[in-house]
Please model this.
Amino acid sequence: MHELALMGDILNLVEKDAKQRGFDSVTGITLLVGILSNAMPDALGMAFDMYKAQRMTMLTEDAALEMLIEEARASCPHCQTTYTPTHRIAICPDCSLPGGQLTTGQSFQVKSYEGS
Ligand SMILES: [Zn+2]
Model:
């Protein structure tokens, strides 16, 4: 489950920033997760709960993880159609050619967090 490592990275990032701001604890994190990113929201949620239970992070006992799911869009370089791809390798529904450039859907980032 690589979401455990991903969540570890996120917590490191957030805690580093939180310390610089003089926060003692982190009460919530909001992530933007693209539907075509390699992260599974369910697994991220489990990883978050695990880190929280370990009590070795700045997360408070009732810290919440919110995930905003980003839909996928692709644009065809041949006929300029934009469409919703179901896979990373996008085939254009209009001209049936591959090579669609994903414009959204691969994000994986911390949107915001809360602390005190
Ligand atoms: Zn096309």
